[in-house]
């Protein structure tokens, strides 16, 4: 079942045993600002990409040797040439060698934001790529990422939300008098943030990574 943005935010708030302030712009006591919570979930949607990405396609116009890549592209998975009914190989830049091939057309992701072909694609084709997940803005919008990543996403966001408090705690504790007895925890909030990040890694380790395309 899909999870709404609002429900995910509520889950993160429960994890950090806190409450959310819809108007606060700074940390106040134990209240998480709405902006920080949104930033945390946005960062989490990027952090899960090495395991689970959004699959997407983009049409390649006929006779194109240079094409602007889609704005949500994370990684190219493959390029299909309609005229050949086959996938094209990727060209790897090698110093001293020209952009050429004896085995047919090839492609290269160069320059930034573009894909360049050795030859025209007379009938066009299709770009298969891994895309970034859309970042919801409203509470009733649904998270695009599959439900299996929601626990990991929540743990990542919880870790992120604790970082400003950990920073504030570290700033205050720099004036503490050091007592050479026992092993006191200098920044328990940072320890808790790290614990949530560890839980994120454990949860994502349980998720089957999507197979990468053959370039």
| Low-confidence regions | 24-28
Residue fraction in strands: 15-25%
Q: What is the mean pLDDT?
A: 85
Q: Domain count, please report it.
A: 2
Question: What attributes characterize this protein structure?
Answer:
four-stranded mixed β-sheet; 215 residues; 31% helix; 4 helices; alpha+beta; four-stranded antiparallel β-sheet
How would you describe this structure to a colleague?
This protein folds into 2 domains: 111 residues, no CATH class; 78 residues, no CATH class. The protein contains 4 helices and 10 strands; from the N terminus they run αββαββββββββαα. The longest helix has 24 residues.
A few lines on this structure:
With 215 residues, this protein is of the alpha+beta class. Helices cover 31% and strands 20% of the residues. The protein folds into two domains: 5-52 and 134-173 and 183-205, no CATH class; 54-131, no CATH class.
Give the SSE map.
Blueprint: H1 5-15, E1 19-21, E2 31-33, H2 34-47, E3 54-60, E4 66-68, E5 73-81, E6 86-87, E7 89-90, E8 106-108, E9 114-117, E10 125-131, H3 150-173, H4 188-205
Parallel strand pairs: 1-2, 7-8
Antiparallel strand pairs: 3-10, 4-9, 5-6, 5-10, 8-9
Helix pairs in contact: 1-3, 2-3, 3-4
């Amino acid at each position: 079942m899909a999870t709404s943005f609002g429900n995910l935010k509520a889950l993160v708030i429960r994890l950090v045993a806190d409450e959310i302030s819809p108007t606060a712009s700074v940390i106040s006591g134990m209240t998480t600002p709405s902006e920080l919570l949104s930033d945390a979930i946005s960062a989490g949607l990027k952090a899960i990409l090495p395991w689970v990405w959004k699959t997407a396609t983009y049409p390649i116009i006929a006779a194109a040797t240079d094409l602007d890549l889609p704005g949500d592209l994370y990684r190219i998975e493959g390029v299909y040439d309609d005229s050949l009914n086959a996938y094209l190989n990727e060209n790897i830049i090698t110093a001293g060698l020209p952009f050429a091939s004896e085995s047919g057309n090839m492609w290269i992701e160069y320059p930034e934001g573009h894909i360049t072909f050795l030859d025209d694609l007379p009938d066009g084709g299709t770009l298969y790529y891994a895309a970034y997940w859309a970042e919801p803005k409203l509470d009733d919008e649904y998270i695009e990422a599959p439900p299996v990543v929601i626990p990991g996403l929540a743990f990542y966001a919880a870790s992120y939300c604790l970082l400003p408090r950990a920073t504030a705690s570290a700033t205050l504790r720099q004036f503490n008098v050091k007592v050479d007895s026992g092993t006191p925890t200098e920044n328990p909030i940072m320890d808790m943030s790290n614990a949530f990040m560890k839980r994120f890694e454990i949860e994502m380790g349980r998720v089957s990574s999507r197979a990468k395309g053959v370039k």
